[in-house]
Amino acid sequence: MDMPKAPNSPYVLHYTSYDSKTNGAGEKCTLEVDAVIGADGANSRVAKSINAGDYEYAIAFQERIRISDDKMKYYENLAEMYVGDDVSPDFYGWVFPKCDHVAVGTGTVTHKADIKKFQLATRLRADSKITGGKIIRVEAHPIPEHPRPRRLQDRVALVGDAAGYVTKCSGEGIYFAAKSGRMCAEAIVEGSENGKRMVDESDLRKYLEKWDKTYWPTYKCLIYCRSILQVESSKEAFVEMCADEYVQR
Ligand SMILES: Cc1cc2nc3c(=O)[nH]c(=O)nc-3n(C[C@H](O)[C@H](O)[C@H](O)COP(=O)(O)OP(=O)(O)OC[C@H]3O[C@@H](n4cnc5c(N)ncnc54)[C@H](O)[C@@H]3O)c2cc1C
């Protein structure tokens, strides 16, 4: 990404265009744009381009396991979270249903080298509910733990994992990625008066202000929950709290 050479001149993006029919090495292309939304995930190149700074991250490990239709019925309206030092000292293990298979995984910030040990423990916890299943995919990826120090520069803004919007404790990031992408796009549409004027940093800042106002209380609450989850003796209290209907809502 080449930065603008003058205040209102465009960003130039360099990319490779692939044609799925010819399967070749692709064609080098450029694209000139007025604004850039960095929605390129935890290892964001756009974030690097604007020196957005780093964040603390968790590592998540997940196995997609195809289980029998009978076993799948158990997970029809249910997702499982396991807490305890065996599955993760500071996060949780999970079994999440994914349409025709389950995702079994765990994460940690503090003990990344032990992730495979925690994964084994998570599988043992789910035990009979997944035995006989076939592992169809293994995934490992960083999960941001905190927004980046910088999420905006001139006409470049970051959203989703690129910005660092996964919530602590729950590890939820899909909703916040989609929501922040939409909010940022809306700020650009509004600031540009539907494409009639050039946006500037103050237009994109409206997205950040709206975002922080709407979601910062949620993040604060989950940062607190996370501190409970990190202490073995208070994990049961956390589980009890999650059983509360109000908390679930
Ligand atoms: C194992 C695991 C399990 C998870 N489970 C959940 C869950 O159950 N619920 C939940 O809410 N969240 C979950 N998360 C978090 C969630 O996946 C992310 O928060 C979410 O996907 C972030 O969306 P995103 O669009 O910001 O980034 P991504 O989903 O990472 O998408 C970024 C996209 O940009 C593309 N890209 C990157 N660089 C370039 C480039 N240079 N050029 C072109 N394209 C590029 C990538 O290929 C990718 O398609 C999980 C994460 C992990 C690792």
TrEMBL record:
Q: Which reaction does it catalyse?
A: phytyl diphosphate + 3 NADP(+) = geranylgeranyl diphosphate + 3 NADPH + 3 H(+)
Name by which UniProt lists this protein: Geranylgeranyl diphosphate reductase, chloroplastic
Q: What is its EC number?
A: 1.3.1.83
A biological process term (GO) from this entry:
chlorophyll biosynthetic process
In the record, the note on similarity to other proteins reads: Belongs to the geranylgeranyl reductase family. ChlP subfamily.
Which domain of life does this protein belong to? Answer: Eukaryota
Q: Which organism is it from?
A: Solanum tuberosum
Q: Where is the signal peptide?
A: none
Quote one Gene Ontology molecular function term: geranylgeranyl diphosphate reductase activity
Which InterPro entries did the record assign? FAD/NAD-bd_sf, Geranylgeranyl_reductase
